[in-house]
Specification:
The chain is α/β, with parallel strands linked by helices and 387 residues long. The protein has 15 helices and 13 strands. Helix 1 crosses helix 15 and helix 8 runs parallel beside helix 9.
Length: 387
Amino acid sequence: MRIGIDCRTMLNPEGGELAGVGHYTTHLVGSLVKAYKKDEYVLFFDHNMPQAQIAHLAERENVRIVRFPFSQHKKYLPFGYSHVFVASVLKQQHLDVFHSPAYVIPMQYNRPSVVTVHDLAIYQHPSWFPPKQTLSRSLLVPRSIKKADKVIAVSNATKKSIRQLFKVPEERIATVYEGFTKGERVTKATKEAVKKKFGLSDDFILFVGTVEPRKNLVSLVKAFDHFMNENFQRHKGLQLIIAGGRGWKYNQIFRTIARAKWSANVRVIGYITHEEKIALLESCVFFAFPSLWEGFGLPVLEAASLGVPVLTSKVSALPEVAGDGALYARPDSVRSIQDGITTLMRSTAKRKVLATKGKEHSKQFSWVRCAKETHDVYASVVNASQK
C-alpha cells in the first residue's frame, strides 16, 4: 500500500514532551514504518519542520518525505491553503489511503481516507474550549468524520460520542487504543535532583496535564485543602504538585490556590521534561487526575505502567484506561475527591494493590498494537476501494 499520513502535528515545542495529537502521530508513524516495511509511507510536513527532527524517518527506504510548499504563507488564506492547496498536493502523490491523525481531512480531498478522532468534549462542553475553534467544530470536523471511509476512535467512549453526535454507522468506526512509551526508571540521584530543582518535599501528590478547566484542578485543590484541614497534624509536609503548561481559562485555578488555607503546600511547576515526569511519578505518593472528561487519558496510563497508584474519575475513557488499577472519585464532587485522597493517604495496602493492578492492566496498551490495528484499518479501506 502507498499510505499518506499528515505529520504536521509532530512539530512540537523543544525542551518538553510531545503533547496530545503530536505524541500520537509521532509514535504511531514510528511504529508503522518499522513494522510494515513492504508498504510505502508518504509523510507530509510543513516547510519549517527541522530536518534533524525527522532524519530517522527520512533515512528509511519505505518513507518519502513531502513538505507542503508555501506553508509559511498559509496565514494569509488559511482555509484555501488547508483545504484546496493541501488537497491538490495529496492528490499528486496517488495514495492508496490518506490518514489524518488530527480530526480534519481537507475538504477538496475525495480519495480513500481515514481520520482519527481523539476527543469530542468540545461538543458536549464548549465552554471548556477557546471560541476560535468554531469553524473546526461546526464544519470541518463533522464533514471529515462523515466523508472518511473509516474513523479511528482512540477509546470506546470516543466511539460512542461519534455515533451519538454524528450518526455514523458502527461498522465505519474502529476503536484503536493509543499506546504509550514506558518511561525508563531513573536513578535515586536523579529523583533527588528533580525534587530539589522544584523545591518538593518527600511526600507529595502529583498531577500532570494541561492547566485548564476540564482537568478539574479547582476541585482537586479544594479537596486537597479540605484534607489538609482535617489531617494537618499527620501530614504537615504533604504537597500537591501540579505539572503542566497553562491552557485555556487557567486564572480561576490560580485564584483557588491563592485563596486556599494550605496554598503554601500547592506548587505549580509548569511544563516538565519526560525524565522529570518519570522522576516525579516514581517519587509521588500517588497520581491524581480527577478530569471532567478525557478522550483517552494518557497520563493515567503512564502512571499506572510505572506502578504508581492512581486517583481518577469514573467518566469518559478513564475507566477503560485505568481498569481496576485506580481508585475512582466523582469529578463533580469535591468531597468525593477528598475521600479518595484520604483513602490513599491512610492505606499503604490500598496503594500497593492499585499499583499492582494498574501495572498489569497497562500491559494491554502498546504502540505496536496500535500500529497493527491502524494498519488493519488502512488495509480494509484499500480493499474496499478496489472492489
